[in-house]
Amino acid sequence: IELSRGDRAGQALQVRRGRSVGLQRQHGRSQRAAPLVQHLDPATRAEGPEELGPLGRAQQPGADYPLRTVQLEQTLGVVAWQQGNIDEARERLVRARVLCESLDAPAEMARVLSARGRIERQLGKNADSVATLREALAWARRSGGDPALQVEVAVDLAQSRIAEGTLVEAEHELRSAEQFAIDERLTDKLVAV
Q1: What is the mean pLDDT of each run of 10 residues along the chain (193 residues)?
Q2: How many Å apart are CA 141 and CA 89, to the nearest integer?
Q3: How large is the greatest C-alpha to C-alpha distance in the chain, in angstroms?
Q4: In sequence order, which residues have a C-beta less than 8 Å from that of residue 34 and are 6 or more positions away?
Q5: Run of H or E including 25
């Protein structure tokens, strides 16, 4: 039987893991070896919630690569902005947004848009900042999984409203963020509100 290069690499990995299992059993550590044995034998692998990735999909090696790419692009965009490279920051945040749209990752989209909104506010583009942060808040509400994210985006939106000069709307945003933080028992976020 002729094996392709990828098959040989997979077998080598299994052989190395098999040796590791054997060594652990020799030293009386069979409990630590159990996860490796389950990895080697798919029939014994349990498919439960612990095997699911951040988006509820089956976790496989490299499965979180697109999500990590979004986070990396967002972080590099913020760093580029802090270094004064506005064009690169915009490009990176646009790339992160496009990836989020393809992944259907509402929480990450909210984070990307929130970063963009904060940057726009600091550049003095208050109307753009408010529009971007309103969209970020809608995405954060859609995600439903991270109430702290909703509060953070709402506070950012209120700050942009203050910078824009619309104080009544800013007060409304802060009061709704405060009530949401209370409802969700996010006492640490109340300080920010």
Answers
A1: 43 41 39 37 40 48 76 93 92 93 90 95 94 95 87 94 94 90 78 60
A2: 25
A3: 75
A4: none
A5: helix 5-26
Three-state DSSP at 123 gives coil
DSSP-H helix ranges across 49-125 = 65-82, 86-103, 106-122
d(CA 136, CA 148): 13
Distances (CA, A) of 118 to 14, 40, 155, 159, 161: 48, 47, 11, 9, 12
Start-to-end C-alpha separation, the chain:
66
- On whether the CB atoms of residues 125 and 81 are closer than 8 A, the answer is no
- Residue 83 pLDDT: 94
Q: Counting Cβ atoms within 10 Å, is residue 132 exposed (0-12), middle (13-18) or buried (19+)? A: buried
| 0.70 surpassed by pTM | no
Number of continuous H segments (helices) and E segments (strands) in the chain: 9, 0
Residue 189 burial (C-beta neighbours within 10 Å; 0-12, 13-18, 19+):
buried
Q: Look at residue 153 in the predicted model and tell me its pLDDT.
A: 94
